[in-house]
């Protein structure tokens, strides 16, 4: 009877041991099955990190491109400003040169007037003299020099009166010529590069 009880007890213990072993195996199986899920999360994190890295690089690249565009735009503006400054400086220099040249020409015109009046007073015999010929040569050289500089005499005689170039100091009734025509020139006028240095003093027919 005792042996039978002992056998029952042993069988019961074996069953309990088997049950515990099954539970342990099941827990191990569950743990083993959970590993891939962890690996999957790791892969997701890795993909997320890679995406974040790419996004960060793209942001940096966009910032660099923006900086390059800003610097390029600034350089273009500076170059344009410098070009405008250069043109303005050249224009101012040319204007200053023209003002200086006109002042010199204004000083020369009375000398030219003196040569012309002196040569007009010479008689036919005096014109042949060496002194008169020398004066005429100097006068012609002077006129050639101012012509090379861009100084030109204003045409007035027998031309229609033009207030942009002529200064009417006298009017006369003359039916032999048309109205508003210059019939006499008292003082020759000159232009320098299309700018009037001195107006022609003229007599105009009404």
TrEMBL record:
Residues 1-11 have a biased composition (Polar residues). Its main location: cytoplasm. Residues 36-47 have a biased composition (Acidic residues). GO terms for molecular function: adenyl-nucleotide exchange factor activity; protein homodimerization activity; protein-folding chaperone binding; unfolded protein binding. Homodimer. NCBIfam families: PRK14140.1 (NF010738). Participates actively in the response to hyperosmotic and heat shock by preventing the aggregation of stress-denatured proteins, in association with DnaK and GrpE. It is the nucleotide exchange factor for DnaK and may function as a thermosensor. Unfolded proteins bind initially to DnaJ; upon interaction with the DnaJ-bound protein, DnaK hydrolyzes its bound ATP, resulting in the formation of a stable complex. GrpE releases ADP from DnaK; ATP binding to DnaK triggers the release of the substrate protein, thus completing the reaction cycle. This is Protein GrpE. The lineage of its organism: Bacteria, Bacillati, Bacillota, Clostridia, Lachnospirales. The gene is grpE.
